[in-house]
Write a structure and sequence with these properties.
Serine Threonine Protein Phosphatase 5, Tetratricopeptide repeat; 47% helix
Length: 459
């Protein structure tokens, strides 16, 4: 996919161009695959708008690898075994007393996917919005559609750093990358993200009916209409509202989403992958391949399964030869690997109908609406082949059941659901560390570069 040049880099390069009288003047290098921000900021052509949209989709998946590996390790859904660098085990698992600090291993890896990559996508969306606003070459309905799509992606991406640093807060105002706004607390950030998503949905509804006026990748097949994108926006909003503990808001958003209680649980928008010049699915590993770098199923997940659960059969592949990686903190043995991806070009969903049904169950449980909560739980249980729910129906018992089902239905998805779920229900102490002797993290500090930037500005 073609990407626009990173906004920050473009601004710095533009500022660094020397005058013609300077003997050190450099010729400006034109890159047709990465046009400057200036070239699309005024009267952009429909083709340039298209390039920006495709680039935004590419930026939109920039978090997948690191969060799938790191956040799912923090929540003990997986181990990311890496014999080449033991820090993927020792640091990410909190072994030998390792805790997150500003020198924590992963601010080039975890921090990239959890901080830099989301903000790059957010800025890409800003450029797209500006380009659409400042051109006379597309109609107003198309401008509204572009703004709606861009803000939908922004809302999704802002949730990533918000959940990474949690109570440390994130920057919401990044319109001027050289003078960003202050860090705002977690709850305030979630409210601001809600406003962004609502603005995006309003724009999509205002655009009218019919197809999105630009081409989206196959990741949005089935959702490339104004109504379809609005449904995606509302699905993301439902997830956000659960974090905000706005349970009525969850149900309202779900009503306008693509949730279907009788539909395909896997239906939803996705991140597409492909052969060069695209990139392959980063979570695909050949079954039984002789490797020492691989995502494996955490032993506690295997230990806590329900007999006959189809999710276990469909998601976990038992290797003929386990993968063992030994560090100074001991040996980790992976007996099962990820079986979800049929090939290295398989798309990775970023929100699915199954999650929406579980969100419905969770909202009803928190509102003490037992009947609808159990009904939604049973949709998930019956699809997994484990039969209807027969346990207690107090709020606490229903939440226990829902979190258990989320653990297997949403296993190792590129979001770190279990880590976030355990934290928002104050259950981080329930995540087992006995298999690796590590510790569980609550949140991460801001990358050092963020603090250094504020110090440089004199804030």
């Amino acid at each position: 996919m073609k990407n626009i040049k990173n906004y920050f880099a473009s601004a710095l390069i533009t500022a660094a161009v020397l005058t013609s009288c300077n003997p050190l003047q450099l010729d400006e290098v034109q890159d047709p695959n990465n046009p400057s921000v200036g070239s699309v900021s005024n009267n952009a052509t429909p083709q340039q708008i298209q390039f920006l949209i495709t680039g935004l989709e590419s930026r939109h998946r920039g978090y997948v690898t690191n969060i799938s590996q790191a956040w799912n390790t923090f929540g003990r859904e997986i181990w990311y075994l890496n014999a080449s660098d033991p820090r993927f085990q020792t640091d990410w698992l909190g072994q030998n007393g390792r805790v997150p600090d500003r020198s924590y291993f992963g601010f080039g890896n975890t921090g990239g996917g959890s901080w830099a990559a989301p903000y790059q996508a957010i800025k890409q969306a800003d450029v797209l919005i500006t380009a659409a606003a400042n051109t006379d070459l597309i109609p107003e309905t198309s401008k509204s559609a572009v703004r709606g799509f861009a803000k939908t992606i922004q809302g999704y991406q802002f949730m990533i750093p918000a959940n990474f640093v949690y109570e440390n807060g994130i920057r919401i105002d990044v319109a001027d990358p050289l003078n960003p706004g202050p860090f705002v607390p977690y709850d305030q950030a979630l409210d601001a993200i809600k406003a962004i998503l609502d603005e995006g949905n309003t724009e999509l509804v205002a655009a009218g009916s019919g197809n999105f006026p630009f081409t989206l990748t196959r990741g949005f097949n089935g959702f490339n209409t104004f109504q379809g994108l609005s449904q995606v926006n509302r699905a993301i909003t439902a997830r956000l509202n659960a974090y905000r503990e706005d349970w009525d808001g969850v149900l309202t958003a779900l009503e306008d989403s693509f949730m279907d209680l009788n539909g395909d649980l896997n239906r939803g928008p996705s991140h597409p992958y492909g052969a060069s010049p695209d990139v392959f699915n980063p979570l695909f590993y050949l079954p039984n391949a002789a490797v020492n770098t691989i995502i494996v199923v955490h032993p506690s997940v295997l230990q806590d399964t329900t007999a006959g659960d189809l999710r276990v059969r469909n998601k976990f592949f038992e290797r003929d030869n386990p993968v063992t990686v030994t560090t100074d903190a001991g040996a980790l043995v992976g007996t099962h690997q990820d079986a979800r991806w049929p090939s290295n070009t398989a798309s990775i969903p970023f929100i699915r109908n199954e999650e929406l049904i579980l969100l419905k169950a969770e909202a009803h449980a928190n509102l003490n609406q037992t009947g609808p909560a159990v009904e939604a739980i049973n949709i998930i249980r019956n699809a997994a082949g484990i039969g209807p729910y027969t346990g207690g129906t107090s709020q606490g018992e229903l939440i226990d059941e829902i979190l258990y089902q989320r653990r297997y239905s949403l296993w190792a998805e590129p979001w770190g659901h279990r880590w976030i779920d355990a934290r928002r229900y104050d259950r981080l102490n329930e995540i087992p560390t006995s298999f690796d002797g590590g510790s569980i993290f609550t949140q991460f500090p801001h990358p050092q570069a963020e603090l250094s930037w504020d110090e440089y500005k004199g804030d």
